[in-house]
Amino acid sequence: MRDLTPLPLQPADVPWPTQRWPEGGRRPDGLATLADEIFGLPETQSVSYALLVIHRGRLVYERYAAGANRGYLQYSWSMAKSVTHALVGILVGQGRLDITAPAPVPEWQGDARAEITLDQLLRMSSGLEFAEDYYDGGASDVIPMLFGEGRFDTGTYAADKPLAHPPDSVWSYSSGTTNIICRILRDVIGNGPSGMLDFMHEELFDPLGMRTPTPRFDRSGTFVGSSFLLATPQDFARFGLWYLRDGFWEGRQRLPEGWVDYARTPTHLDSANGYGAHFWIDPDNPERFYCSGYDGQRILMAPTQDLVIVRCGRTPEGHAPAVFDRVNAIVDLGW
Q1: Residue 277 pLDDT greater than 60, yes or no
Q2: Is residue 224 part of a domain?
Q3: Is residue 220 part of a domain?
Q4: Bridge-partner residues for 60, per DSSP?
């Protein structure tokens, strides 16, 4: 494991945002200008619904537009993958899952896929065939999984894919991988969607004060953790702060020791992308790690600056730099 920037502790004089976000704190020069630029981009390039900045545990900036407000639920899209990482971590801490063991997937018994581990699934290194294309319905696996023939049992659709590479030899981002994990979670937790909802609330959402998360399930009872979780930006920010605080919240370590470091340790890192375990890593600033979703959803954690930034909106991939260059510039202000 490479050297990682230490994660900051919650300041002793700042209450945890379980009930409400503590507000205030200094806003550095340039923050308002960069936010104006983000919200002022032409609609043909980007529409921003929400921008929140958390510094040292306080909500120092919050802005909404395009009809959104504090109570408006936003789509996570693939930010839900990072929530799936947290659910796995909780079960690991309870001794109910071992990520180093072969993944319990019945379809894989008796062939080479039986060697795939949960660790490899979390790091997108299973070797399974899966085309992560959001536009070409003919070439895509993610479109039929979410909206076509696979939508009723997303985990089985993905688990049926053959190996394209030996396990742990190639990194390949795959929404199918996450739904295989979520089918495993369904079976370990039991009692279908109601059991999963109870577990999510009792072990994750309620302790953090996240009151709005709305996960979606397929007909098989599997949480579609690749893509479908709605929540307010303030609740997304609570999740980000929890990871910035190393899984600690209000006097209790709620994730296993080292679980957040596992998420932010690179599996794949090149000039274009960085990825750990169900979290992305900024290749230009590898200490920064983030949850990312289609159309430009993001929860960014910056340990050195003790920042969490949440951005929700609608931005085509080709225009994403216009938003996220400015989000990164916010991190680089004189905090």
Answers
A1: yes
A2: no
A3: no
A4: none
Task: Provide the residue range defining the domain that includes 100.
Answer: 80-212
Strands (E) in the chain, as ranges, are: 47-55, 58-64, 74-75, 214-215, 229-231, 248-249, 252-253, 268-269, 274-275, 280-281, 289-293, 297-302, 307-314
User: Can you spell out the DSSP letters for 176-243?
Assistant: HHHHHHHHHHHHHH-SHHHHHHHHHIIIIIHHHT----EE-B-TTS-B-TTT-EEE-HHHHHHHHHHH
CATH of the domain at 173: 3.40.710.10
**Domain-terminating residue out of 212, 242, 258:** 212
Sign of CA dihedral 266, 267, 273, 277: negative
Range 220-235 average pLDDT: 98
Token reading at 269? 């890192």
Locate 154 and state its tokens.
Answer: 């997303």
**Diameter of the chain measured on Cα atoms:** 61
- Specify the pLDDT at position 2: 66
Other C-beta atoms closer than 10 Å to the C-beta of 202 total 11
Give the pLDDT band of residue 137 (cuts 50, 70, 90): low
What is d(CA 323, CA 34) in angstroms, rounded to the nearest whole number?
Answer: 10
Measured distance CA(132)–CA(130) in Å, rounded: 6
3-class SS of residue 123? coil
One-letter amino acid identity for 218?
D
Choose among 217, 197, 17, 187: nearest CA to 105.
187
Residue type at 237? A
State the Cα–Cα distance between residues 267 and 244, nearest whole angstrom: 19
